[in-house]
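Figure 2 data, in text form.
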Amino acid sequence: MANTIVYSAQAPAPIGPYSQAIQAGNTIYVSGQIALDADTGQLVGDGDVAQETHQVMRNLQAVLEAAGYTLRDVVKCTIFVKDLGNFGLINEIYGNYFFADYAPARETVEVSRLPKDVQVEISCIAVK
């Protein structure tokens, strides 16, 4: 089985030696997304965790859609946050994208630092 690199111009281009996502069979592994605007390459939100979280979710959606997947296909997410004190707000926004009838498995981890000093980064795995 060959792996396929997934790319979406609607999501930020990788800022290192990795792909936005890799599809292996009927599974897609989406790299961690941060709040970068695909058109400008600039960070969205100016440190506002709510704006960052919305942008991260839009970026995830764009990568999934490029491979023919949707958020309903997501089976697992990993959320990295700079401050676990923001978990409630991030969780509320996340819940606007993943509804209870198809909410994926997930873990949330506080880390000391994220790329470009963002507040939140999310990766996911989806299966069709």
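Caption note: The helical segments are 49-66, 87-95.
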